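sry for the spam today, last one i promise. struct tokens for design, 136 residues
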């Protein structure tokens, strides 16, 4: 039995006994009871609807987090790999005493680190907000 019905059941004797005609008095309270139960059910439905909306929002946040997180991990992994390869070239240039190779490598490192790893995140954000399907 729901809590609302228990409350009503527990209060019925006092309503009946305090009414002028006993059961006649109870009949006058039935519309109030029906209204209360109807409002109670509407409230439960509204709470369920809000909880469902909350779950949808939480799910969307989780999916966006996963997408941004994996995108950022991939971007930084690629940058690290590129920087490592450039430093391999610089080391080889230093071993060969070839200043041209060293300078080209240093320019490449400078160019790479001067660009923001976040530059593509804005376009990724626009794509996500567009509602289009993204194949990874």
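last one done:
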């Amino acid at each position: 039995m729901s809590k609302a019905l228990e409350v009503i059941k527990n209060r019925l004797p006092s309503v009946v006994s305090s009414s002028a005609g006993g059961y006649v008095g109870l009949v006058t309270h039935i519309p109030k009871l029906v209204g209360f139960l109807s409002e109670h059910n509407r409230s439960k439905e509204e709470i369920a609807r809000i909880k469902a909306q909350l779950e949808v929002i939480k799910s969307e946040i989780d999916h966006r987090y996963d997408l941004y997180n994996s995108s950022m991990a991939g971007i930084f992994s690629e940058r690290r790999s590129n920087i490592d390869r450039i430093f391999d070239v610089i080391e080889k240039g230093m071993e060969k005493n070839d200043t041209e190779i060293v300078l080209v490598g240093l320019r490449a490192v400078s160019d790479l680190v001067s660009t923001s790893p976040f530059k593509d995140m804005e376009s990724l954000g626009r794509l996500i907000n567009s509602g289009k399907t993204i194949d990874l």
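Residues 71 and 135 are 13 Å apart (CA to CA). ok im logging off now
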